[in-house]
Amino acid sequence: MITVVANLKGGSGKSTVVFNLALWLQSCAQPVVTYDLDPQCTLADVGAVRQEEGYTPPLQVYQQDTALPEQLAYHPGEVLVDVGAANMPGMRDALSVADRILIPVPPSQPDVWATQRFLSIIDEALAGRDRPPVEAFVNRADTHRAVRESDETAQALGLLEGITVLDKRLCQRTLYRRSLSEGLAVFELAPRSKAAAEFHAFASTLYPQHRPRRRRRSAA
Ligand SMILES: Nc1ncnc2c1ncn2[C@@H]1O[C@H](COP(=O)(O)OP(=O)(O)OP(=O)(O)O)[C@@H](O)[C@H]1O
Ligand SMILES: [Mg+2]
Question: What is the 3-state secondary structure (H, E, C) of the chain?
Answer without folding.
Answer: CEEEEEECCCCCCHHHHHHHHHHHHHHCCCCEEEEECCCCCHHHHHHHHHHHHCCCCCCCEEECCCCCHHHHHHCCCEEEEEEEHHHHHHHHHHHHHCCEEEEEECCCHHHHHHHHHHHHHHHHHHCCCCCCCEEEEEEEECCCCCCCHHHHHHHHHHCCCCCEECCCCEECCHHHHHHHHHCCCHHHHCCCCHHHHHHHHHHHHHCCCCCCCCCCCCCC
